[in-house]
C-alpha cells in the first residue's frame, strides 16, 4: 500500500529535492535538476522503480521526526526494543554536483540498521550497471552515474538488483552515507565531508531563516512555508518550481495528474509579495530577473510556464511503466498546458513588475519597453477566449478572471505612468482601454440575479479565482458585487469548510475542464476566501478559516495542492509552492504589517 502524500518530508539543495517517507525511505529524487529524470520513483510506482531506505532492521514507520528548527535538515527517530536510532537527512549546497547525506546515529542502546539502495535511472525505468571502485559502489547507466560510500565503511553487498548494508550502532556512534551524482562521462567528483556538510547546512539555513521579518501569530508555519519556497527555488536562475513532483493525483485513482516541476507565471505576483514582505529582497530580485528573462521576446510568444532556466519546450509524455501514486495513472512528464493561451498571465507579469518597481527593486534595461509591448498586445487580444487560470482542457471560453487580469495589466501600466511621468506611454489611450475592459466585465461577467460574478461570460458557474477581485483592486471590498461573490463562492464551492476551484461535477454535460469529475478542495483558494472574508469586514470568520487551514499542514509543516475533507488526506503535487505562498500571504493579511516588520 502507498503511504499518504502527507507522510513525506522534503530535503533539497535549491536545485532539486527529495521526498523522505516516515519509514526512512527516499521515494522520489530527480537528478541533477528538479525536472530531470528520477533515480528514485517508488513514489509513483513500486520498489522496482527505485528507493533508498535506512531504518532499524525489521522496523516500520518512525516513532517521530522533525526538521531541526529553522532548517531543511530532517531528523527521523525510531524507538526499538534494542534502543533508539536517529537518521539525519540533508542535501548540502552543491559546488558542482548534488549529494545526498544520510547520517545514522545511535541515540541509546545498540540497534541493528539496514540500508537498501535500489537505483533506477530515467524515472525508475533503467537498472544501472554496478561496480566497486576505491571504496565506493558506482552505478552507471547512459548519462547518469552515482557514487555511494559510507564513513566508516560498513558491510555492503549486492543482491536482487540492489545495494544492501547491515551494521550496528551503539549510543554515540555514527555512520554517514553519501550518495553523489555526476555525469557518467566525467571523473569522480570531489568528496565532501558529511559532518561538515551537516554543520554548515544547519548554520546556513538558520542564518537565512533569521532574515525573516514576520514575527506574528503562526510564525513557525510561516517560516516553514518560506523555507519550503526557498527549497523549491532553482538557485542558478532564481526560478521557483510549482512543486518538487509530477503526477501526484488531485483525486486518488483519477487522471488529474500533472507535472509541476516547472515555473508558472501565475505565481509571480503572490511570490514576489511574499518574498518582499518577509524581508527577502535578494530572492525577490532573483525571481523578478528570472521572470524578465523568461518572458523576453515577442508578447504573442508569452507562455504560462517555463523550465527552471527559462526553457520553452516542455512536451508532455506518459510513462506507462509507472502505475501512479495509489494507482492514479497516467504518470506524466512535461506539461502540454505550456501551449495554452491564458490572458491572465499578462496581468500577473505586469502586476509583478509594478510591485517590483514600487518596492524599490533595481530597474532593469528594457523592462518598461517590454511592459509597453505586453499592453500593446493585450489591446488587440484581450477580447479573445482563452483556457484560463486553471488550464482547462475542455476548450477556450471568455473566463471572467482572465478579463479581470487583463484589466490589472492595463491598470498597472496606467499607474506606472502616473507615478513616473518621465516614462513614455499612451496614458489617455490606456485609461480608455482600462475603462472599456472594466465595463465589459461588469456587464458580461456578472449575474445580477444572483449578485455574483461568474466563471465565464453568460454562465451560472462560479470560480474561486473571483475571490481575487478585491485583492487586485478591480472593485473595492465593500462593493455589494464583491460581497455577493464571496458569499456565493463560500456557499456553492465550499466543501468540508474549505473551497473547491470550481464545480467539476455537472449533471447536464461535460464540465468546463473537459476531464472526469472529482478533485479535492484547493488550498490556495481556501486561503483566498480567508483573505476575502477579512477584506469584506469578517475578520473573525477569516481567522477561523485560517486556523483550520493551518491545521492541515503535516507533522513537518508541509502542504500539497489540495485536501480531501471526506477522506482527511492531502492531494496533488507536493510540497506545493502555491499553497505555501497563499499561507504566508494570508498570515500577512490577517495579522497586519506591523508583525511583518
Automatic annotation (TrEMBL):
InterPro entries: 6-hairpin_glycosidase_sf, 6hp_glycosidase-like_sf, GH15-like, Trehalase-like_N. It comes from Streptomyces seoulensis. Its EC number is 3.2.1.28. Belongs to the glycosyl hydrolase 15 family. Gene3D superfamilies: 1.50.10.10. Residues 216-587 form the GH15-like domain. Residues 3-139 form the Trehalase-like N-terminal domain. Keywords: Carbohydrate metabolism, Glycosidase, Hydrolase. GO terms for biological process: trehalose catabolic process. Its cofactor is phosphate. Pathway: Glycan degradation; trehalose degradation; D-glucose from alpha,alpha-trehalose: step 1/1. It comes from the Bacteria. This is Trehalase. It catalyses: alpha,alpha-trehalose + H2O = alpha-D-glucose + beta-D-glucose. The lineage of its organism: Bacteria, Bacillati, Actinomycetota, Actinomycetes, Kitasatosporales. One of its GO terms (molecular function) is alpha,alpha-trehalase activity.
Amino acid at each position: 500500500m502507498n503511504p499518504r502524500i502527507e507522510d513525506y518530508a522534503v530535503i533539497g539543495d535549491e536545485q532539486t529535492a527529495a521526498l523522505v517517507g516516515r519509514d526512512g525511505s527516499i521515494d522520489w529524487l530527480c537528478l541533477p535538476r528538479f525536472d530531470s529524470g528520477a533515480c528514485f520513483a517508488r513514489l509513483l510506482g513500486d520498489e522496482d522503480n527505485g528507493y533508498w531506505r535506512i531504518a532499524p532492521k525489521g522496523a516500520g514507520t518512525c516513532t517521530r521526526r522533525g526538521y531541526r528548527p529553522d532548517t531543511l535538515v530532517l531528523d527521523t527517530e525510531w524507538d526499538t526494543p534494542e534502543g533508539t536510532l536517529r537518521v539525519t537527512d540533508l542535501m548540502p549546497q552543491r559546488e558542482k554536483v548534488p549529494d545526498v547525506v544520510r547520517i545514522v546515529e545511535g541515540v541509546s542502546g545498540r540497534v541493528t540498521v539496514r540500508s537498501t539502495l535500489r537505483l533506477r535511472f530515467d524515472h525508475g525505468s533503467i537498472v544501472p550497471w554496478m561496480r566497486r571502485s576505491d571504496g565506493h559502489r558506482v552505478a552507471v547507466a547512459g548519462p547518469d552515474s552515482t557514487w555511494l560510500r559510507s564513513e566508516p565503511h560498513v558491510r555492503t553487498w549486492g543482491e536482487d538488483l540492489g545495494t544492501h548494508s547491515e551494521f550496528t550502532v551503539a549510543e554515540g556512534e555514527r555512520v554517514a552515507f553519501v550518495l553523489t551524482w555526476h555525469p557518467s562521462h566525467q571523473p569522480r567528483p570531489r568528496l565532501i565531508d558529511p559532518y561538515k556538510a551537516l554543520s554548515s547546512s544547519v548554520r546556513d539555513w538558520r542564518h537565512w531563516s533569521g532574515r525573516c521579518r514576520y514575527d506574528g501569530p503562526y510564525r513557525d508555519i510561516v517560516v516553514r512555508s518560506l523555507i519550503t519556497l526557498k527549497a523549491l527555488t532553482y538557485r542558478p536562475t532564481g526560478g521557483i518550481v510549482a512543486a518538487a513532483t509530477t503526477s501526484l493525483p488531485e483525486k486518488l485513482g483519477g487522471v488529474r495528474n500533472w507535472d509541476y516541476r516547472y515555473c508558472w507565471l501565475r505565481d509571480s505576483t503572490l511570490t514576489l509579495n511574499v518574498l518582499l514582505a518577509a524581508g527577502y529582497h535578494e530572492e525577490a530580485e532573483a525571481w523578478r530577473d528570472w521572470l524578465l528573462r523568461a518572458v523576453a521576446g515577442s508578447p504573442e510568444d508569452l507562455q504560462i510556464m517555463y523550465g527552471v532556466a527559462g526553457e520553452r519546450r516542455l512536451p508532455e509524455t506518459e510513462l506507462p511503466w509507472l502505475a501512479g501514486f495509489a494507482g492514479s495513472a497516467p504518470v506524466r512528464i512535461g506539461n502540454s498546458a505550456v501551449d495554452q493561451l491564458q490572458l491572465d498571465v499578462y496581468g500577473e507579469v505586469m502586476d509583478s513588475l509594478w510591485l517590483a518597481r514600487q518596492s524599490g527593486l533595481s530597474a532593469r534595461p528594457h523592462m518598461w519597453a517590454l511592459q509597453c509591448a505586453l499592453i500593446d498586445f493585450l489591446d488587440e487580444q484581450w477580447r479573445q477566449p482563452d483556457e484560463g487560470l486553471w488550464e482547462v482542457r475542455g476548450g477556450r471560453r471568455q473566463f471572467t478572471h482572465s478579463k479581470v487580469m487583463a484589466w490589472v495589466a492595463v491598470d498597472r501600466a496606467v499607474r506606472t505612468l502616473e507615478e513616473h511621468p518621465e516614462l513614455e506611454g499612451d496614458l489617455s489611450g490606456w485609461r480608455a482601454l482600462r475603462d472599456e475592459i472594466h465595463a465589459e466585465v461588469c456587464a458580461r461577467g456578472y449575474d445580477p440575479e444572483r449578485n455574483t460574478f461568474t466563471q465565464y461570460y453568460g454562465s451560472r458557474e462560479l470560480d474561486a479565482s473571483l475571490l481575487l477581485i478585491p485583492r487586485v483592486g478591480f472593485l473595492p471590498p465593500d462593493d455589494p458585487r464583491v460581497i455577493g461573490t464571496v458569499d456565493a463562492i463560500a456557499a456553492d464551492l465550499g466543501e468540508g469548510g474549505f473551497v473547491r476551484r470550481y464545480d467539476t461535477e455537472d449533471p447536464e454535460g461535460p464540465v468546463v475542464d473537459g476531464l472526469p469529475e472529482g478533485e479535492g478542495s484547493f488550498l490556495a483558494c481556501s486561503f483566498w476566501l480567508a483573505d476575502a472574508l477579512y477584506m469584506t469586514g469578517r475578520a473573525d470568520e477569516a481567522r477561523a478559516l485560517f486556523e483550520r487551514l493551518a491545521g492541515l499542514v503535516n507533522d513537518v509543516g508541509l502542504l500539497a495542492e489540495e485536501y480531501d475533507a471526506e477522506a482527511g488526506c492531502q492531494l496533488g503535487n507536493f510540497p506545493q509552492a502555491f499553497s505555501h505562498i497563499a499561507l504566508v500571504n494570508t498570515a500577512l493579511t490577517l495579522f497586519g504589517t506591523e508583525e511583518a516588520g
